[in-house]
Hints:
This protein is of the alpha/beta class.
Amino acid sequence: xxxxxxxxxxxxxxxxxxxxxxxxxxxxxxxxxxxxxxxxxxxxxxxxxxxxxxxxxxxxxxxxxxxxxxxxxxxxxxxxxxxxxxxxxxxxxxxxxxxxxxxxxxxxxxxxxxxxxxxxxxxxxx
Length: 126
């Protein structure tokens, strides 16, 4: 699986990358610090899953999701967020991600989210 991690926090990117590589060493991991960088990479690389922070400068997760729906509708999208409010939860639900992880999350949470994606891909192939 080829995964693009998008977060304006270098620490969060490194944590996600480390956890994913530990449980799935066969994965290719790419990173971007905002939605604009992510869109550039999506145009250049074959990506199976984008895991994006929701709130970021330049282009946040909501803007990235909208652009992905228009230009990359087959790529799975999951969110990580430290924000918890009714408004944010409603907005996230409207974007219809494969999963949402609320910070702080654990390695088990990340692995369960990846299993969701892997299982949804195998179901689509029938």
